[in-house]
Amino acid sequence: MTRIPHETSGEPNPLQALTLDQLRRRTSMKWRAYPEDVLPVWVAEMDVPLAEPVVRAVTDALHLGDTGYPAGTDYAQALAAFAEKRWNWDGLAVERTAIVPDVMLGVVEMLKLVTGPGDAVVVNPPVYPPFYHFVEHMDRRVLEAPLGADGRIDLGVLEETFRRAVAGGARAAHLLCSPHNPTGTVHTAEELSAVAALAERHGVRVVADEIHAPLVVGGTGFVPYLSVPGAERGLSLMSASKAWNLAGLKAALAIAGPGAGADLARMPEEVGHGPSHVGVIAHTAALRDGVTWLDALLSGLEANRRLLADLLAEHLPEIRYRPGDATYLAWLDCRALDLGDDPADAFLHRGRVALNSGLPFGTGGAGHVRFNLATSPEVIGEAVRRMAAAGLTPGTPRPS
Question: What's the average model confidence in pLDDT over 168-185?
Answer without folding.
Answer: 97
